[in-house]
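Review this fold:
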Amino acid sequence: MHTTDAASGALGGAIDVHAHFVTSTLRTAMRDAGVEHPDGMPAVPEWSPQSALRLMDGTGVRAALLSVSSPGVHFGDDGAAVRLARSVNDEGAALVAEHPGRFGLMASLPLPDVAAAVSEAERALGELGADGIILLTQYAGRHLGDPVYEPLMAVLDERAAVVCLHPTSPVCWEATAMGYPRPMLEFPFETTRAVTNLILGGTVDRYPRISFVVPHAGAALPVLADRIAAFAMMQQGAAAVDAISSLRRLYFDVAGFSSPRALPALLGLTDDEHTLYGSDFPFTPDWVVEALAADLAASKVLTPPQMRRVREENAVRLFPRFGPAL
C-alpha cells in the first residue's frame, strides 16, 4: 500500500476525477488491433501505478478515479470487447484494493453492444464496487442521447451512477481533423455534440439520478449554450427542454487547458459547486500536469473556498468514500 501526505502538493489533497490507466492487457489488445496511435496521438502513453502515485504525490492529489481513455475497449469484435471490458475492470478493481483511498475505478463497458454493456455495468457497480462508469461520446456513430442507449441509462439511473463522459474520434474524422490529432479540435466538439444530444433528447431529464461529468471545462458548451437553448426553443416550441437548466445540473472537470480562458467561461455557465479537478494523465504528460496544477492553484479566478470545492469537496459529494472533506 502506498500512503502519502497529499496536502503537501500544490493542490493540497485534491481528488482527480479524470485520470486514465493503461494496463498490460489493454496495451496488448490495442497493439493486436493495430491501435498504435490512438486518435492520432504519437503513441499509447506509458502508465504504471507507481508513476501515477508519484505524480499524485507531487501535485497534491490524494485520490484519482481511473478510467480507460479513447478509443475504449471495442476494436471491432463484440466478443473480444466483452472480454476486454471485464479484464480491465477486474484489473482496475484490483488496483483499488491494493491502494485503498488512492485509486477509484470508473468502469468500462463493451458498447455498442447495449445488452452486454448493461450486464457489465451491473457487475462492475455491484460485484466489483466500481465508483462509476466511463462512457465515450459515441459508439458506432450513435452519440449518447440516442434511444438505443435507453436500457443502459435506465440501469445507471436506478443505481444513481456517476458517469464520466470522454470524447473519442468522430466517424468522419478523416474529413474534419485536417491532419491534426483529434484531441485538439475533434474531441471538444464531440463532447459538445454528445452533451447536446443528452439534453435535447431528454436523457438528462428522464434519468435525473445519473450524475454526468463533462470533461475539459465543458468543451465548447460554455460558448454555445445560449445558441443551443435558442435552437431548442425554435425546434420544440412550448415543449422545449430548458437547455440551460439541464446544463447547470451537470458536473464539469477542468482537465486539460482550462486556464486562462476556459475556466472563466465555464463559470459563466455553471458554478463552483459543479466543477471538479482532473489531470488527464497519462495522455497529458506528467510535466504538463504539474504545470497546469500549479497554474490552477495560483489562479485568482477562484476564491479559497471555491478552490476547496473544486479541488475536493464537490468530488466527495459524488464519491463519498473519499471523504471527509466537507
About this structure: The beta strands are 14-20, 61-67, 103-107, 132-136, 138-139, 142-143, 162-166, 211-214, 251-253, 275-276. The longest strand covers residues 14-20.
